Amino acid sequence: MKQFGFRIADSDPRIEPPAAVPAETIDLSRLFSAARRQRRVVMLSTAVSLCLGLVYLATTPKIFVAGSTVLLAGKVSRSIEEVSSIDSSASENALESAQEVIRSQPVALAVVDMLNLTENESFLNQPVSLLETVVDGGKEIVRAPIRMISPSPPSVEPGPPPTPEQIAERKRQLIATALSRTIEVQRVGRSSVFAIGYASHDPVLASKVANAYAEAYVSDLLNANYDATERTTAWLRERLEALQASAREAAVEAEVFRSENGLVSTRGALITEENVSTLNEDLAVSVTEAARAQALMKTYESILNRGPEAFLSDRSSGFALQGNERLIEMQDQLSALSARLDRIERDFGNDHPQAVRLREQVSAQTNVLFGEVRRLHEEARGSYNVANAQVQALRESLGLAVDVNSEAGRKQVQLKSLEQRAETLQTLYQTFLTRFQEIDQQKSFPISNVRILAKADIPLTPAAPSTMRVLAAMIVLGLMAGAAIAAFREWRDRFLRTGEDVQNDLGQRFLGYLPHFDAANGAPQLSRQARNAPLKLSEPVPGMPVVRKPIHALQHPRSHYAETLRNIRFSSEVSLAGKSQIVLGITSIRPGEGKSSVALNLAAVMAASGNSVLLIDTDPRNPGLSRRLGLTRGVGLVEAALGRADWTKALRVIGDSGVHLLPCVTPGMMTHSSEMLGSKGMRQLLAAARARYSHVILDLAPLGPVVDARVVVPLVDQIVMVAEWGKTPKALVRETLMNEPALMEKTLGVVLNKVDMTTLRDYVSETGGEHYYEEYGDYFSGRSNPA
């Protein structure tokens, strides 16, 4: 098989590198347009939020805040801290504990008693704001069904009724609990100063509570110091008595033991103790020497067990670790010979004479090295045996010395223990006695580590609610809510509104905007003299019925509406250049988008330009054009397509526009409309109309689930898609065109109908031409430009 080789070039110098994709940027003009469109929503949300803020300010009682400051410094009692080894300095833990003490129940109870809050109406009956009432009502509404479905608690036998004293005490406890929850305690910076604040609708009550808390906290610490001193003094007194008795008993016991055992020592130690100490030191040295000799012997033994061949297979035998200079030198010689042998064998082969001689030298050197290791092993074994014998001898001597001094040593140890216990108890007794005397002296004047730095004054201005802050916050919340609602509305706005939507989202040509007008109450028809240019109208066929119906494009020939229709006519003629007869279909995606009005006005504009125009209502299921013109009886499209009548006999002329109309009159619901529109008679009718008229305009049925318009698509030259401004979804139009390739191929473009021209400016960019439509007012109104 013949093989082929391929060479793939890494890159072709003729191919230019792809251009970098430009980064996406934020189009500020779009953001400003969106903000301009949704300005009413944002303004309404802000106004509602501002009104809610005003209601909140009007229904919320004023809150006054008063505050006092206290300083936590020094130690509570130096003597107590030294005895108990507790450091009460102003550490982080101590400061956190101080805040909890201020909020504690005892301090709150002291404040309640000091100000008699159980009888204070200003404290007991505080006003409630409307917001709190609404929130509480909402909570109650939520809890009501939960209570209904929750199991009832087990019944408890009622006890004896509470006494008035118990009721008063319970009320006092509840008021203290409520007070401790509302008091504010904050540390000032990193200092040991605490700010105690209380908020109330009564400024006098707020200042009284703040000052009472500071005083109650100082009193609580004084009482705590006094109680701690009392408890410490009582405990020390009991300990002193016990220590004194214990120290006396320990001293007597030591003296009795010494006299009974005759333990008289010189310099605090027995003579036999020195011998035992010396033997212990010698035994430790001998054990170390024996261990070293044994380790060396085992090292050499492991080398001998490997045999002489190990020196050749493993040239790093580790002899340098033994500290033997001769072994190191012999090992280096063997390594040098082995390296030289390897080089000779690699360069000249194994049979080279020099390689043979070097191999013999390596073998001889290996045997010499192995013999030296064997000799060293024997020396190490002898040293180990000597050291081991010395260890055994020292152990026997030590055992004899210990046996001789064991009895005396045990008694001496017991005596030392007794003496140390007596000395410890005496020292502890002296220490406790000194601390007891200091605490007993300070008991009559306890020192507090807290002092009040500033007392609370009666506040003159309320702290809350702040009018400026509430209004500013509500304005910000209103703007945020409005922005969120506006963003949601923008996200939901997925309808066709601008020509850019048509071009970018649908990929179709944009044919223009048709402003919204009231077809039922249109302006009166203008006289021919009021128009700037005379209209060329097709002459009606003699004897043809005339339909009198005003046409907006003819009533306002210089309007934006008429100009957009002229643009459709121009685009159609340009795209179909060279065609003298054009069949143009007008359709939409959904019903009610104004396609019939567009078809009627477009036909009138084309007829006004001197063309012969035939307008056919090709929507048998819902002939809206015919009904709009008042044609509900007679012969029409159905009879002509089925061959039951001559289509030319069914024509009407619409006023003086010159447009000929073939209506569609159906007595009831027509179920086979698609078969009729795709029949041979329909094709022949359109062929005859194309030969007679320069423009044939078909008012087709809407697309979507109805297939009538799709049947007629192959018979037309172009399709004009009518979309209602702000109501036709982009996705619906896009999917319809993508699913119908023939329809997309023949679509001339999309025209937006029923456009609110004033609101349109909010959806277009300032760089777009739609933003400047108002500047063309002179071209549409008929007034001459003064310039």
Biggest sheet layout: 9 strands, mixed
What is the CA-atom radius of gyration, in angstroms? 57 Å
Oligomeric state of the chains? single chain
CATH topology of the domain at 499-518 and 548-781: Rossmann fold
Residue share in helix = 55-70%
What would the principal axes of the Cα set say about the shape? flat
Mean pLDDT: 78
- Classified by CATH, the class of the domain at 499-518 and 548-781 is Alpha Beta
Per DSSP, the total helix count is: 27
Question: Would you kindly provide a written description of the structure presented here, covering whatever features stand out?
Answer:
The protein is 56% helix and 10% strand. The protein is an alpha/beta fold and 787 residues long. Among the domains are: 271-442; 499-518 and 548-781, P-loop containing nucleotide triphosphate hydrolases (Rossmann fold, 3-Layer(aba) Sandwich), CATH 3.40.50.300. Mean pLDDT is 78; it is low at 1-18, 83-88, 315-321, 521-540 and 782-787. The strands form 2 sheets. Strands 5-13-12-7-11-8-10-9-6 form a 9-stranded mixed β-sheet, with helices on both faces. The two termini are 89 Å apart. The chain has helices at residues 28-37, 39-59, 78-84, 92-102, 105-115, 121-124, 130-149, 164-182, 203-261, 271-306, 309-313, 325-348, 353-442, 467-492, 499-506, 552-555, 560-575, 595-608, 624-628, 637-641, 673-677, 680-692, 708-712, 730-739, 741-746, 757-760, 777-781, and strands at residues 64-72, 184-187, 193-200, 450-454, 510-515, 546-547, 582-588, 613-618, 652-654, 659-662, 695-700, 718-724, 747-755. It is flat, with a radius of gyration of 57 Å. It contains 27 helices and 13 strands. Helix 12 (325-348) packs across helix 13 (353-442) and helix 17 packs across helix 18.
